[in-house]
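name: query_chain
kind: protein
chains: 1
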Amino acid sequence: MSSDFEGYEQDFAVLTAEITNKIARVPRLPPDEKKQVVANVEKQLEEAKELLEQMDLEVREIPPQSRGMYSNRMRSYKQEMGKLEADFKRSRIAYSDEVRNELLGDDGNSSENQRAHLLDNTERLERSSRRLEAGYQIAVETEQIGQEMLENLSHDREKIQRARERLRETDANLGKSSRVLTGMLRRIRSCPSSGLHTVPWEPLPCCTCGVPAHLPTRP
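structure:
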């Protein structure tokens, strides 16, 4: 069983080496030979896929305890096959572009380059326009925020000025009240009938217990 797998491996290695060599030669070949080589590579890629299918069937028949090594090798071969197909696809795209340019001539190639250049410039202009628009929007928002802050500061300043004026009025009123109270106290203290002077007391007997009581006498 393993001998069959190894035989398929050898065939696959030889075939993939030929495919790799031909894919690398495609860009440097004349147009007629390129077409023939491309067709040959397509055929060989199909043969390589068939070899992979045969190897995959052989691996499935290997006992599980020995299958791991062969499964790893199969994954490697499949990755190599995918790389070959990708390289061939890129080679075919380049070949198709070259054929198209040959059919269109220099004018076609020049028009394609001009179109690509215009598209590139258009994308750049669009990106620049978006950046300018975003910058303008930020500037407008910043101006609005600054205007609101100035208005708030102006209102706060007016409030502070009114509060200071009220404090000045309050201080003035307190000063006036203090002076008025001071004058009233002075007049009260200087008036003999105000009752704030010391009044002499005379003892009088209490009507109930006979204990002398002190009553103020008029001056």
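note: The CA atoms of residues 34 and 180 lie 119 Å apart.
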